[in-house]
Amino acid sequence: MPDDPCDSAGPAPRPEAPPCRVTVRRQGPILLDGPVEVELEDGTTVSSDRFRVALCTCRRSRRYPWCDTSHRRRAPGPSGGPVGGRDRTVPDVPG
Fold this sequence. Notes:
Layout: E1 22-24, E2 30-33, E3 36-39, E4 45-48, E5 52-55
Antiparallel strand pairs: 1-2, 2-5, 3-4
């Protein structure tokens, strides 16, 4: 008599992996415990086997999606977000 698939125990249980830690910094990259695989908007994937990975959130990185600290060379806009396009400083607002 053939084996009944309903009688099988199924795949062996996987050992519980610790949750992935994600660190969000205001005006900075998202820090992830690696290794990671990132799916880009066009469906391609890139991966890193480093123990700590910084993902760009300002979209200025020349190594996108990886952070290259380009956010440090820009001044934040009034909403706390990045200023688009050019290097500039935030003007002093009269009291």
